[in-house]
Every structure is written in C-alpha cells, then in structure tokens.
Fold Neutral endopeptidase.
Amino acid sequence: MKKFSLLIITILVLMTIACNSKKETQTSGIDVTNLDTLISPKVDFYQYACGGWMLNNPLTGEYSRFGSFDKLAENNRKQLKDLIENMASKPTKTGTVEQKIGDIYNMAMDSIKLNQDGYVPVKSDLKYIASIKNKSELSKLIPELMLSGTDAYFTIYVGADPMSSSQNLLQTYQSGISLGQREYYLDKDEHTTNIRNKYKEHVTKIFELAGFSSEQAQKNMEAVLKIETRLATAAYDNVKLRDPYANYNKISIEEIQKLVPSIDWNTYFTTLGLKEVKEINASQKESLIAVENIITSELLDTQIAYIQWKLIDGAARYLSDDIYTQNFDFYGKTLSGKEEQSPRWKRAESTVSSILGEAVGQIYVKQYFPPKAKKRMLELVHNLQEVLGERIQASTWMSDETKTKAMEKLETFYIKVGYPDKWKDYSTLTIEKDTYFENIKRANRFEYAYMLNKVGKPVDKDEWQMTPQTVNAYYNPSTNEICFPAGILQYPFFDRNADDAFNYGAIGVVIGHEMTHGFDDQGRQYDKEGNLKDWWTAEDAKQFEERAKVMVDFFDSIQVAPNVYANGKLTLGENIADYGGLQISYQAFKKATKDKPLENKDNFTPEQRFFLSYANVWATNIRPEEILVLTKSDPHSLGKWRVNGALSHINAWYEAFTIKEGDPMFVSTNKRVSIW
Ligand SMILES: [Zn+2]
C-alpha cells in the first residue's frame, strides 16, 4: 500500500515490521533485568542500561532489527489480530466496514487461492502495458497505473503548500527506483556492488515467475537497471530532500508542460480526474528533467519493460508464495539480513491496518485506550510546553525579537492525543471477492481519490497522518502540530503505575522530541502558521547554525560499523530533537517533583531512573546488514547512538551518574551541544 504522509512529517522512529509481553506493575517503572551491571555506565551507558534487555530479547529470524519499541508494536499487532479475526470469522453485510476488514484479511490468509492464482492477477495489467504503441500513450498510462499503486518515473501527492500552508497543493515527488536509495545504483564499494548484482538476479527471476522467458527476463532486467540508474543519478540524496527550499518549485501548468514536454499534462491530469489544475509544486526539478530525458531517449520497449517491473515489484507481496518468497529473499534477506518471513497473519494484519487503518483504529481505541490516559498525556504535554517556553526565554544566544516569534510558534502548537475526533469515511471503498491484488488496487484508487479531492481546497488540520494504533508520534511543520497516537501511550513509553521519573524519562522525552522538531534545523524554517518563512534575525540564525554544527560534527565522527560513519547532516533534525526532548523533559520532571521529591527506588536516584527509562525505550538488537541500510536511509540515529550520542550532551546525566573527565563516556563541555 502506498503511504503519502511520510513525505513531510517528522516521525519519532522509522518503523519496520515489528514482537510481546505483559508488564508487571512497577512503581519505579525500571525493570532491573534490562540492565547489564557487568559494565559501568561510565564506559558504555547504552550497554549498561539495555544490555540485559538485548540478551533477553534476541533477534528472531523474522527481524532485521528488534527493539523495545518493536516489542510494544508487536503486542499491539496481536491485539489487532484478535479484533480483526473476530470480524473475519462472522457473516457480515456487504458494504459494512466489518465486511471489508473481514474479506481483505481472509483473502490475504487464503494461501490455497493465492497459490492457485500464481501471477494471473497481474497478467492483464502486464498485457495492457505491453499494448502501448507509442510514447505519447505514456501520458495516460503513467497516471492510470499510479492510481492503482504503481509508481513509475515519479509520483504525485497532495499536501499543504509550503509557502501558503492553509491551502492544499498538487505536488510531484521523485520516485520510480525500487531499491529506494539512489546510492544503491551509484556507489562502487564491494557491499553495494554485491547488492546491485543480487538485485539484477532478483529482477530477472521475478520476470520469469511472471511468465516471461529467460531470455526476455534478462533483457527486461537490463532495461530496468538502465532506467532506474538514470532516475537514481538525478534523484536528490536524503540530505537534500531535507532542505524544504531546495524541494519547492511551484510552477504553472504551462511551465511544467515546458519542463517535461514528453508528457501531455492535460491528459495526465484528466486521467487523474482533475479539472482546472493551475499550478503544481514540481519538487526535485532535476528528477523531472531526467524523466523527460528518459522518455525521449529510451526505446519504447525499454520503457515498457521498466513499467512492467514497477507493476510486478509492487504486486509481489500480494501474489503466490513463489513470487512472495523471491521478493522476500531479496528485500528481506539480502538487503536487510532477515532470515525468515513473517507469519502470514502478520502480513494480513498489516494490509488491513494499512487499507482500513482508521476503521480498525476506531475499534482499537474503544477497547484499549482509557480516557484517563488522554487526560494524563495532555497534562504532560502542557507541562513540557511551559518548560520549553522557559528555556526559550532563558536562552543566552537568541535575541528578544526571535524569542517572541519562537514563543508564538510554541503557543500555537496544535496538539493531538489518542485518536481523531472525526473518523475517515470508507463508504466508497469496495472490497470484492475476486483476487487479493485486485483489492489492493481498489484500495489505492480509493486513497488517491480521497487525496486528489483535496486539490485547491483548504487544509483540514483535524486530519491525522497516523492511525491511532500506531506506536509512533510525529510533528507536522505545515500545521505546526504534534501528534501522539494511542498506540504509543503504553509501556515502555508510558506507565500509569510508574512515578514521574519513569514517565518524564520515557514519554516525556518523546513529547519534548516532537516539540523540538518545530525548532530543529528543518522545523525552524516554518513559522507559527506552518509557512516556509524566515522569522529569525540573521545573527540568531547564524548562532543556531554554529550550534547545530557541533551536533553534525559529533555524529559524523561516530563509527557505526567498520569504516562506516553516521551521517551527521542526515540525522541532524532527529538528534536535535532527542537532545531537546531530554533537556525539556528533565527540567519539567524537576519542576513537577520540586515540592515532593521522589525517593530512591531499586537503588537508583530519581535522576538516574529518568535516564535509564529514556535509554530503555531505545534498547535494540540489529543485524549488521540493517545497520548499513539505515545509515544510508534513516534520518534517525541508531538506537545505541540515540542513547550514547544524545546523553553525551546532557549535563544532568553526567551529574546523575557522576561521569568525570577520563571516563570513556565523557565529552568535554566545549564539545557539547547547547541549543534548546
Ligand atoms: Zn523525530
């Protein structure tokens, strides 16, 4: 299923398919079995705080990465499975949400039919793609396929106009390379070359499994590599994609027609069902120019093979076991180091949650989200908001002028907790009993219709970019909103029975993290209305840049694998957010307990428990392959460095664990970050 929202928002963690336990009530919240007391916190805090957890939660074959975050997500997944299976096992009335959820789940589970059908569900689409006779037909074919989920060359989405945030704008976005990251096509090191060679084998095998002769499959693979490499060469890297100005290029329809003349944009928009489109944000201009050059210079047959690949590649997860397995062997095993496939029910649950997310969420929150949790969360959010305000006011490097603007932005945060007040309407989505893949296409068309309907209309700030059952949180700069879905408001983030040291260290830092995104290197470029507009004095902006540079340099020097270093620029926003979250939440914790200080528990001071609770959120086991994948692609630092890298800059942490000069974890004060 396609996902649109991740194009702009800043999330807390990059989710992988996630696994389960019930927590005993703990008044300190700290589970001492998570610790590794054989090592000193002064030597490796992450190992000290999380070593026990990592030993007790070894990676199973299904995962390339598994952390306490994923453990919670896994628990949610089991709850959702029960809810969904309950619907799927009963007779339902056609057109009801129960029928849609039940039928799609049952189709995903029906391995006998999936295997009988083989590649038949994609056969007619492949034939249709092959039937085009000249390049002018691409103007209709590309959008037609995009609507049902195939992104060839580039994609389209609708989101707030970055310069006029209350209005929705049609926007293009670079896409069309199946390896996702441009570096996989371009880097010449041994690891990447090996992946590229395996990818070539994979593309060839998939074509064969989809009914092509070996000779044709080989030829098609060469066509795919040729076009994808050209797209990759022009694509922006992940650092440039984080620069909102570099990705803003609002132009008229006449202008995009000049930029990419090979596509008849009138036909393109008509196929999308859009009338009277006047302007478009042609993001990543160079990528679009590359599309133009590819269409004009490559033979039609080469382009047909590429488009066919994009279709089968997107469909592979919804087809027979031989195709699914080949797909897993490449993307799961080779790329990420996984050893075995997830059980079928998990894949089925994830499809349902993706297609009918809010329908499932509505049932989920009724059963699992107590109203008390929302009230407690709102209190925490307000406490942290107040403290961030105090920290801004007390800042020594910012002028009063910029401070006033920063305070206005902070005060206008749009806060969302738990679940949306109004739910998405799925009445126009139909789920029929033909094939699983046919329904995936229907769901994509439904999502596109829903999204395209927003073109030219005001932004609906009450719409949620995540479902309530999601274990994550986000900040959206264009609406200046922070959102904490019900799914994250559980242990190890939130424990109603634990004291403030625990909850401020865990969910408190998450709240502070999302708030800080409004003021990180990217978020600070948007004003309180969510417009891309500079509200900083030149001197304050310079101060910010200098201070942020300390963070960039610090992370650039971290070796994550032999001869592989973290990318300080790519992870800057997230590292600032972790740092800011810790600073704000720690101060809010001290403020909240000022009149009634907490006692030592489990031989730890309240301050120590705050930092242990923070670290435990990021306890993770990860495969070496996945470290390389995430270092290329993920704007978040790896779990180990979200702990050791972030805490090195927090003075209160040095005090809590009496870390002194000469200790391996010690970073001298002039190398510590000081921003928020
Ligand atoms: Zn974040």
Remarks:
- The CA atoms of residues 20 and 75 lie 5 Å apart.
- The pocket of zinc ion is lined by residues 10-12, 513, 517, 574, 577 (CB under 6 Å).
- The chain has a mean pLDDT of 95.
